[in-house]
Write the structure tokens for this entry.
Amino acid sequence: MLSDVLIVARPGRAPGIECTGGVTARRTGADTVHLVSAAATPLGGDTVRIRVVVEPGARLWLRSAAATMAMPGNLSMESRSSWDLEVAGLLDLDPQPTIVAGPARHISTTRLSLSAEGQARVRERIQIGRSYERQGFWSGAMYADVDGAPLLRHRVDMGTGSVTDDVLGTPMACVSELRYPETSFDAQGTLLELAAGGALATWQGDRLRATGQR
């Protein structure tokens, strides 16, 4: 299944929303939108594509109503998701965690394009396996630019077959949080100030902490 979501935030107007496939979106506040699964997705073979545009002067808080469960399919173990974020206003993106169930493999790509006046907070939380499951795989890449100049190139692989796959101490959960233009904030794990502005916080461990959304 292919799911497409387009959200456009404009100043002084309700966010525009277009959806097809198994993921939809609902306005839950003046500047807040929640993603909602309308069908069981992503299963192996599925692709979820989410495009977000925040125009100058606009603000958008983007959340999800529940965790995303990546499940194996009958013909394929691998599913994919992509986030294309064009931000000239303010974007706060903090969905519920993605959980990779059983032997599923999930590949995620985030592309963030900021204007010099844009502001963004993008947090991603991943858990390999439900209770007693440890055989899944996740790969996440982030490409962030400001006015076309590189801000960040970041990739993490976790789970079975990853470079960190070790029976003695394989990380099974991670949290990544990018903020721009902030260079310092309270965060889990290690905080790295970026040369072109902003900061990236990363944490890895066995299980996600019950910190919730902010």
Notes: The chain has a mean pLDDT of 93. The chain has no helices and 17 strands.
